[in-house]
TrEMBL record:
Its cofactor is pyridoxal 5'-phosphate. Belongs to the class-II pyridoxal-phosphate-dependent aminotransferase family. MalY/PatB cystathionine beta-lyase subfamily. The lineage of its organism: Bacteria, Fusobacteriati, Fusobacteriota, Fusobacteriia, Fusobacteriales. PANTHER family: PROTEIN MALY. Its EC number is 4.4.1.13. This is cysteine-S-conjugate beta-lyase. SUPFAM superfamilies: PLP-dependent transferases. It holds the Pfam family Aminotran_1_2. It comes from Fusobacterium nucleatum subsp. polymorphum (Fusobacterium polymorphum). Residues 46-387 form the Aminotransferase class I/classII large domain. GO terms for molecular function: cysteine-S-conjugate beta-lyase activity; pyridoxal phosphate binding; transaminase activity. Keywords: Aminotransferase, Lyase, Pyridoxal phosphate, Transferase. NCBIfam families: C_S_lyase_PatB (TIGR04350). It is an enzyme of class 4 (lyase). InterPro entries: Aminotransferase_I/II_large (IPR004839), C-S_lyase_PatB-like (IPR027619), Class-II_PLP-Dep_Aminotrans (IPR051798), PyrdxlP-dep_Trfase (IPR015424), PyrdxlP-dep_Trfase_major (IPR015421), PyrdxlP-dep_Trfase_small (IPR015422).
Length: 395
């Protein structure tokens, strides 16, 4: 679909809808008038086919107990096979009310209080919270940053695993906020280290479908022909793919029989795990009929990124713009243009932007910001203009 036609049909105003991103600005940032580019959802309506299916289900008027249809399983299985070459069996699939919820469950089920859990920083801040909230020891290992290109320090990872007797590694693939789509050899190295030291891997692959041209998401479970599948659990969802986060539904994929039995035995003690009927329907229809929409979204994100990178490189080359391989979240390094303790004042008070600050993702990333590009190109343009104009006013 032509870009302008797509935007005309799908762009939407979200203010006044109890949007966390737009209507909670005053509570979160102290200013309700900021340009909101923080929370990882979109100013784009979900595919019309999903909306129509939800309307039909709602108009039926009954929201009673339901079971999971074969159509749902088939849609999930087909999507992962066709898009990611990941062959999933129906009996491997479990459900949660979101990726973060699942991570909390796994920490409870597969580790004990005071066990050590590893994450690679900078990384999605609920990873940090999940470990600390469950009274586990949070062990962080910074990614190596070479001019905005982030890679894994395998020697440091293995050192920290051994020194801290790590029990669990929470992986982000594709990586938020570094924008990396990990290569198979990168995944193989870290998965091999974890297998060697008996560290269970939880792989958050929620951004698997938002990958830019020239890159390919490799599910951790198929790395080296599935060599590491028995030592990991994958979490995926259609929520980032089709802008469905508020329907609180995700898939848990556990191929190892022993891990799956342990999960099943323990989860029933702490939570009901039936799927959300509307979330499941939206996921199914998205996987069945939403591919055209996704392709348009990826084009929009890539165009927004290219505009931002081009304008900032031209006008403020001192800002390092992390290359966007996957996700719709770009990480900017502002440390060469402004002292790190002045970033909030510059970005929020002067540029009038609500963004995610680097220190939210890791203590050593103050001076970075994360910007959401799954939005109206005019919002991206205004944000970039504000940054450039305010930069020119700096002493």
């Amino acid at each position: 679909m032509e870009k302008e036609k797509f935007l005309k049909e799908y762009l939407v105003e979200r203010k006044g809808t109890n949007s966390l991103k737009w209507d909670a600005l005053d509570k979160r940032f102290g200013n309700p008038n900021l340009i909101s580019m923080w929370v990882a959802d979109m100013e784009i309506k979900t595919p019309k086919e999903i909306v129509e299916a939800l309307k039909e289900r709602i108009e039926h008027g009954v929201f009673g107990y339901s079971y999971v249809s074969d159509d749902y399983y088939n849609a999930v299985i087909k999507w992962h096979k066709e898009k990611h070459n990941y062959e999933i069996k129906k009996e491997w699939i479990r459900f949660s009310t979101g990726v973060v919820t699942a991570i909390y469950w796994f920490i409870n089920i597969f580790t004990k209080v005071n066990d050590s859990v590893l994450i690679l920083t900078p990384v999605y801040y609920p990873f940090h919270n999940a470990v600390k909230d469950n009274n586990r020891k949070l062990i962080t290992c910074d990614l190596k940053n070479t001019d905005g290109y982030f890679t894994i320090d395998y020697n440091e990872v293995e050192k920290k695993i051994v020194e801290n007797d790590i029990k669990l590694f929470i992986q982000c693939s594709p990586h938020n906020p570094a924008g990396r789509v990990w290569k198979e050899e990168e995944l193989a190295k870290i998965l091999e280290i974890c297998k060697k030291h008996n560290v269970l891997v939880i792989s958050d692959e929620i951004h698997q479908d938002i990958v830019m041209k020239g890159y390919k998401h490799i599910p951790s479970a198929i790395v080296e022909n599935g060599k590491y599948a028995d030592n990991l659990i994958t979490i995926s969802a259609a929520s980032k793919t089709f802008n469905l986060a508020g329907l609180i539904h995700s898939n848990i994929i556990i191929s190892n029989d022993e891990l799956r039995k342990k999960y099943d035995d323990e989860i029933k003690k702490i939570n009901q795990t039936e799927g959300n009927i509307l979330g499941m329907l939206a996921t199914q229809i998205g996987y069945e009929k939403g591919e055209y929409w996704l392709e348009n979204i990826k084009e929009l994100i890539e165009d927004n990124f290219n505009y931002l990178k081009s304008e900032l490189n031209k006008n403020i080359p001192e800002i390092t713009v992390t290359n966007l391989e996957g996700t719709y979240l770009v990480f900017l390094d502002l440390r060469k243009i402004i002292p790190i303790d002045k970033v909030k004042e510059f970005i929020q008070d002067k540029c009038n932007l609500a963004i995610d600050f680097g220190e939210w993702f890791g203590k050593n990333f103050k001076g970075f910001i994360r910007i959401n590009l799954a939005t109206d190109p005019q919002i991206v343009k205004k944000a970039v203009e504000n940054i450039i104009n305010e930069y020119k006013k700096l002493d």
